[in-house]
Specification:
Distance between the termini: 36 Å
Number of helices: 12
Radius of gyration: 25 Å
Helix content: 25-40%
Order of helices and strands: HEHEEEHEEEEHEEHHHEEHHEEHEEHEEH
Number of strands: 18
Mean pLDDT: 92
Strand content: 15-25%
Low-confidence stretches: none
Structural class: alpha+beta
């Protein structure tokens, strides 16, 4: 993509424009947010509203470059090494600051500290990260997922997983043996005792699941009309995650219309929505939601004119909004996703 095409793009997750060098704290926040997420480019010398190339004084480019480097070095931690370029467009001079996705998150402002200085990119804005997101960033640095973390509250032999074992047998034709539990990373050994991971607790029917993950549910509602003012039916699905998607799918089928058309000598029935797509969307909402975010659930809202499915969690850094049609795929939950597959 050339510079003219880039300048026609809206600001977003990986792109920001500034007419002049931002204040020290604003520049550092943007750099930290880019490094914590998917990386990004900051173009200095471009006004955003309306979008036009203003340019920078050519005699000051080197000084501005040095100032940018000093701000990033002095204010950001761990160290962030951006790529800084001079660009000419319409005989005007711009500076492009490219920040790469960091390998040692969380990145934060030195003066604020980790809890008050960690920023993430949400759309075209920089947002202060809460403790749950900071924990997720730290897991990313260690290359582990939340569902693979061990929970030493109860040995696996004391955990009620009978329902999950039955479903596993039904779907795979195989027994969920102790060996299978280890192979699937559903249990881990700690000092000679095997304990469940978060994933196995989520698949279980044990009281421990309700204690640790009371918020892991699917809230379904059929609203009257096209607003949330009145609802016709609702259901809160609080079963283990192995059955949540199917129950939610059945709720949707009960509340969308099915018609029939005559084609030749045959009567062909059709749903008003592509049910395979709805099933896949619900499965994805359950499989790929961020289970570390407390107090948030999957929501399915059915209106007269649409079905809306909401799943907690930010899009993973490896997924690019601008290339959605390329069918990108990445599993947030490294244990849960393969089991569903």
């Amino acid at each position: 993509m050339n510079i003219k095409e880039i300048l026609n793009q809206p600001e977003g997750r990986r792109l920001e424009f500034k007419a002049e060098l931002p204040e020290h704290s604003d520049l550092a926040k943007t750099v930290v947010a880019f490094a914590n997420d998917a990386g990004g480019d900051l173009y200095i010398g471009v006004a955003d509203d309306p979008r036009e190339v203003i340019g920078l004084d050519e005699d000051k480019l080197v000084a501005i470059e040095e100032k940018i480097s000093n701000i990033i070095f002095d204010r950001c931690y761990p160290a962030i090494l951006p790529e800084i370029k001079f660009i000419s467009e319409e005989n005007k001079h711009l500076i492009q600051v490219t920040v790469f996705r960091g390998s040692t998150p969380p990145y934060y402002l030195k003066e604020k500290g980790k809890l008050q200085g960690t920023f993430i990119r949400v759309g075209s804005t920089n947002r202060l990260a809460d403790e749950a997101i900071i924990s997720e960033l730290e897991r990313r640095r260690r290359n582990i997922s939340f569902d693979s973390e061990v929970i030493p509250d109860k040995p696996v032999n004391d955990l009620n997983i009978d329902g999950f074992k039955a479903i596993f047998k039904e779907k795979t034709g195989e027994e969920l043996s102790d060996q299978a539990l280890r192979k699937l990373d559903l249990v881990k050994d700690m000092q000679g005792v095997e304990y469940p991971t978060n994933a196995l607790i989520l698949f279980s029917d044990d009281p421990l699941r309700n204690s640790l993950f009371h918020y892991v549910k699917v809230e379904c509602a059929r609203f009257k009309g096209v607003s949330i003012d009145d609802f016709i039916d609702q259901k809160s699905i609080t079963t283990n995650i192995a059955t949540q998607a199917e129950e939610a799918y059945n709720f949707v089928l009960r509340h969308i219309n099915k018609g029939a058309t005559v084609e030749g000598v045959y009567t062909v029935s059709r749903w008003e929505y592509p049910v395979k797509a709805i099933r896949e969307a619900i499965r994805n909402a359950v499989v790929h939601r961020d289970y570390s975010l407390t107090g948030k659930d999957v929501k399915i809202a059915i209106y007269d004119d649409m079905v809306e499915i909401t799943s907690p969690g930010l899009l993973p850094p490896s997924i690019d909004y601008a290339a959605m049609e390329s069918r990108q795929s990445d599993a947030r939950n490294k244990v849960i996703a393969p089991i569903f597959k």
